[in-house]
Amino acid sequence: MMGSALSVPLVDAGHEVRLVGTHLDREIIDALGDRGFHPTLRLELAPAIRPYQLEALGEAMLGADVIGVGVSSAGVRWAAERLAPWLASGVPVVMISKGLGWDGQEVTLLPDQFAQSSGTSVQPAAIAGPCIAGELGRRVETSVVLTGRDPRMLARVAALMATSYYHPVISTDVAGVQVCAALKNAYAMGVGFGAGLHERRGGLGGSVAQHNYEAAVFAQAMVETERLVLALGGERSTVLGLAGTGDLTVTCNGGRTSRFGKWLGMGLELGEAVRRMEGATLECLDILRVLGEAIPVLEGRGLVRKSELPLLVHLIEVALEGRSVKVPFDRFFGVA
Amino acid sequence: MMGSALSVPLVDAGHEVRLVGTHLDREIIDALGDRGFHPTLRLELAPAIRPYQLEALGEAMLGADVIGVGVSSAGVRWAAERLAPWLASGVPVVMISKGLGWDGQEVTLLPDQFAQSSGTSVQPAAIAGPCIAGELGRRVETSVVLTGRDPRMLARVAALMATSYYHPVISTDVAGVQVCAALKNAYAMGVGFGAGLHERRGGLGGSVAQHNYEAAVFAQAMVETERLVLALGGERSTVLGLAGTGDLTVTCNGGRTSRFGKWLGMGLELGEAVRRMEGATLECLDILRVLGEAIPVLEGRGLVRKSELPLLVHLIEVALEGRSVKVPFDRFFGVA
Hints:
The structure is a homodimer. Helices cover 51% and strands 12% of the residues of chain A. Chain A is an alpha/beta fold. In chain A, the strands form 4 sheets. Chain A has a 5-stranded mixed beta sheet with strand order 5-6-9-10-11, with helices on both faces. Chain A has a two-stranded parallel ribbon with strand order 1-4. Chain A has a two-stranded antiparallel sheet with strand order 2-3. The interface between A and B is large, with 51 and 51 residues.
């Protein structure tokens, strides 16, 4: 979805885009080849976006200026292995995959996973910030963050991608951006509880709903995000900007994660809420699993304290252990 | 509205509340006296909330443990003069009024305006953070910030106010909290542009709308809020919490300010957008007027740079000078 959507500004910026599907995307690539229509984005794509099945990867790579990677976080190692033969030439790689890994000792960032799995020293840049695919495909204006460790490469790639409606800004705080990008899925689930509780109490949508509740959860989410960003080597300033407040805002307003949170807030049993998502990737569960394992280890090393993360601890209980929603407001903002 | 709504947790915390109307609130006080019904909150209030007309102020003050002030920012000086006779006894004052003043040289905080106008040394505490009155009156859970310069007084007042659904946390960063509380109205107007542009282009509500746009504006709003908080003597950490991200979130989701911004985003002429608000207080215009005068002076003193505040500068152009909405994304996040 996101890889295809990103093709729209790239074509508008004057590029040819070769869109290679994984084995999970065969039907989308077929539909694009037959009719130029993207079935999940529900959008006609420009002819300059050329679809390729996975078997034609080599053909698609010929003369590429930039390689984009849009697989889910679980597919990053797979993608790195597949792409390894084309990385030696120094062509920049840009990832739109988001998430964090856990190797039992350390939280790992996806660009590092990619570099390691590819067996090269290629460190991909990564994109984060507010960007719903369906809106980008329809040219809704936004700003995003392009992060990586080489500012010259970032500036070059940002200049290639920018259009009148797609504004990449650059940041060398890879850890901060990636931690924010991953955490927002967990926290958006928690903000979504409010809408569910409201419906459960018979409420209708409107300006008087559970917006106070949602906003207090949002603010606590940002405070906890800052704690985790600092614990994992990121910078404080990243949290206030696009990767932090911006991406959490859009995920609460437009994402499937907040819908999942709403169902939990309505009192649906965990398994039933997952079933209702009809197989959609639930990044919030992935990141909560990672953090559920990582936090005790990080706490043992003195990097974070569970007592500073009461919202996250509750989200883990709800989403992984099936507890009922009861957000611990009385422990928010350093109280108790 | 907000003063009346705050009576609900106070009564639930076991207090008697004496609700004194200004001369503008006669009908509300009458309706509460006759039927116990609050016409603008559209809510029946408990009998322990006792309504008083302004002439009975002296009677209402007898034996008060705390004095709350819920007038609009324009009424703070008036309220301070009226309440002066009862301030000598050292009874704590809590303000829910929000805004900033400008005396031609300095940005002034409402608690300081109150102290000065009362002719006493009483420095009121102030409440900020996510709190839509209609939701508080219906006991929707939230956390708020109680700010002031005396932490012992804050702790005492917070303990008096807390209930199972109303969670005051305390902060001694008066400038930071008050600047955030005032700015959120201006910036929520800007976030609201997105919904208006979406409707103008024929869009319907839903998960694919202009959420990317709104979220990028939100993030830039937080970055600019931090600049202004620091320039006006507040603390960075306040911006990420309830007074900053929390209050902006709720104001975007439930407030009249974002509705006003939506009309401007739809392309309505400024005067027409104001007319459609049917006389509702537009705090966003007040704060933009203050900042429109203050920023050149603050810039002259080297405290802020206009180039760091491109969103605010555009909001001033739109709301005070009648310019069309065209948010300068290309100058956001320190670019250019």
